Amino acid sequence: MSTRTVIRGGLVVTAADELHADVLIEDGRVVALAATGSDVAAGWTAAHVLDATDRYVLPGGVDAHTHMELPFGGTSASDTFETGTRAAAWGGTTTIVDFAVQTVGRSLREGLDTWYAKADGNCAIDYAFHMILSDVNEHTLKEMDLLVQEGVTSFKLFMAYPGVFYSDDGRILRAMQRSADNGGLIMMHAENGIAIDVLVEQALARGETDPRYHGEVRKALLEAEATHRAIQLARVAGSPLYVVHVSAREAVAEIATARDLGLPVFGETCPQYLFLSTDNLAEPGFEGAKYVCSTPLRPKEHQAALWRGLRTNDLQVVSTDHCPFCFTGQKELGRGDFSKIPNGLPGVENRMDLLHQAVVDGHISRRRWIEIACATPARMFGLYPQKGTIAPGADADIVIYDPHTTQVLSAETHHMNVDYSAYEGRTVTGRVETVLSRGELVIDRGAYVGRAGHGTFVPRATCQYLS
Asked: Mean pLDDT in each 10-residue stretch from start to end of the chain (467 residues)?
């Protein structure tokens, strides 16, 4: 049975266009757009008509960096695929790309199957996976080819976390060479973890145990050095490179230099680096633990370089690195030793609103908002134009957004399964009103009407900036 929905009277905003148009949806896909008030639009009939007058009509957000149910530091991220995808929908995100984890000594297949099982039947919105490579060897290199064919087309490596996820330069080079052949995209956590561990040990020996020292030992220069090294290894391998959660202006400069040479190097940043700083890490008592993540928050003066990078396209994507740990019982594991604080912040629900605030504040344009939050992550990870835009044939992942109302971000009102908000008390302009995922209502005028299991796994093509 065909189901038709019409969204009437809104300002449709995509990365390419802004137009007052009605949107016709049938069987989960966008069928047509027509100018509001035109004869064509007036002739559309549908069982469901959504009024978007004085609202924006946006593509659903694509958050290309989340960690639901991630085991880390003796505990696990507090959002499940069910709670995390529901919170994402509340925030106007309709697709997440999460990270499946390979355990050292085990196959990629086993890690991926574990994540399939975690997500299957539990997601409110669509999802895809990257693969974390913890153990690069002859067997796992061959497995990379098979995963690309299966639609898992990106692989994350770590220059940080020795003894957990860390890969040395030789292993990184081998994985990059493989991806150069199979079309996969290497994602890099670029921090010099070996040097950082020395600084951690020295800080603790001096009695410097508070959360703020997490930011002081993970120096911006060690992010920049690792970023530079990752770029040179990728050049040697003939491989593209995507640097995750860029936080330091020195690292942005390394990426900009590479891009000026015409290299296929891409950069992502996150809302926490744009809106928070070391001032948060230094909050009194143990409050700073709420803001411990890696790469760490930087002094405020780094923010200008990140915003400039987003405007000049030296940084292309804003993802969340959503990896929440409750303050009580989880972040508290690091009382008396900052190195034991689980690394991660909640944010999957806040990204679209914070970036709209950036539009209001004049940092970016409306179309750039949609570009960095929807269209580019979809293209970067082989999901476009199924995701990331509103166009005939695209999935009807659509957000009706009220740009005029204000809201106060707070743990009292958010839907993430975590006991604090990284943005507690912050007033932002704009709010998600209605969300459709493949044409089905998930959020209806501020009420959750979705269900676990609606979201399906989406196999991905390879990066669409390389063809």
From this structure: 89 98 98 98 96 98 98 93 98 98 97 98 98 97 98 98 95 98 98 98 98 98 98 98 98 98 98 98 97 98 98 98 98 97 97 98 98 98 98 98 98 98 98 98 97 98 92
Q: Could you give the CA distance from residue 452 to residue 438 in angstroms, rounded to a whole number?
A: 14
Q: What residues contact 107, with CB distance under 8 A and at least 6 apart?
A: 139, 140, 143
In angstroms, rounded to a whole number, what is the distance separating the alpha carbons of residues 30 and 389?
10
Do the beta carbons of residue 7 and residue 398 sit within 8 Å?
Answer: yes
Q: What is the DSSP letter of 287?
A: G
Spell out a b/e string for 42-81, using b for 16 or more CB atoms within 10 Å of the CB, else e. Answer: eebeeeeebebeebbbbbbbbbbbbbbbbebbeebbbbbb
Helix (H, G, I), strand (E, B) or coil at 97: strand
Residue 387: strand, helix, or coil: coil
> Shortest CA distance to 351 belongs to which of 239, 435, 274, 424?
274
Written as six digits, the tokens of 61 are 């957000």
Question: For the whole prediction, is pTM greater than 0.85?
Answer: yes
Least Cα distance to 32 among 22, 47, 42 occurs for: 22
| pLDDT at res. 467 | 67
Which helix (DSSP H) or strand (DSSP E) does residue 126 occupy?
strand 126-132
d(CA 233, CA 283): 38
Torsion of CA 431, 434, 437, 441, to 10 degrees: 150
Structure tokens given for 96: 């997440």
Closest CA to 454 of 129, 85, 91: 85
Please give the pLDDT value at position 2.
65
Max intra-chain CA distance, the chain: 75
CB atoms near residue 149 (< 10 Å): 11
Long-range contacts of 204-211 (CB under 8 A, 24+ apart): 204/337, 204/339, 209/336, 209/337, 209/338, 210/286, 210/288, 210/338, 211/281, 211/282, 211/286, 211/287, 211/288, 211/289, 211/291, 211/292, 211/334, 211/338, 211/341
